[in-house]
Amino acid sequence: MTPADMLKALENGTLDPSEFSHRDHVVVAYECLQQSDFFRATTRIADGLRALTEKAGVPEKFNATITFAFMSRIAEYMHDGATSAEDLLQKNPQLLGDLDIRKTYDADRLSHPLAVQIALLP
User: Fold this and answer.
1) Which of 58, 61, 64, 69 is nearest to 98 (CA)?
2) For residue 13, what is the DSSP state?
3) What would the pLDDT profile of 98-111 be if each residue is shown by its tens digit?
4) pLDDT confidence of residue 92
5) Average pLDDT of the residues of the chain
6) What is the secondary structure of 100-120 as a DSSP string?
7) What is the pLDDT of residue 29?
8) Which residues fall within 8 angstroms of residue 50, CB to CB, at 6 or more apart?
9) Whether the predicted model's global pTM rises above the 0.85 cut
10) At what angle do helices 22-35 and 38-55 cross, to 10 degrees?
11) 38: which DSSP letter?
């Protein structure tokens, strides 16, 4: 499935949650940021992820703070000259984990009840 196909499936609710890896999250976010400005892309991804976690029966796994932080980080790294999602990941392998975000946010902040609903600042 191409990144555009995955994004479309995420948005229309046909994506299988069990087949959507963290790597796929980054690739789809990159694709969405290629198609839309930052805020529109972030909304599209957040809406899709929220629906995906509900479909998987784990709505509590959606976290607005983590989603916003990753979208911000991916958008920032895209402006450093990444020519594709694969190029982005090759130049920024830290995106394949949450270490980059955990350096910015402490665990209490990320697990705060409001972090699920709104994008908290570090």
Assistant:
1) 69
2) T
3) 767 888 899 999 99
4) 93
5) 94
6) HHHHHS-HHHHHSHHHHHS--
7) 98
8) 59, 62
9) yes
10) 140
11) H
| DSSP helix/strand/coil, 7 | helix
Which long-range contacts (C-beta less than 8 Å, at least 24 apart) are formed by 4-13?
A: 4/31, 6/31, 7/31, 7/32, 7/35, 7/44, 7/48, 10/45, 10/48, 10/49, 10/52, 11/44, 11/47, 11/48, 13/51, 13/55
Q: What is the secondary structure of 47-105 as a DSSP string?
A: HHHHHHHHHTT-GGG--HHHHHHHHHHHHHHHTTT--SHHHHHHH-GGGGSSHHHHHHS
Burial pattern 40-77, b for ≥16 Cβ within 10 A else e, equals ebbebbbebbbbbbeeeeeeeebbbbbbbbbbebbbeb
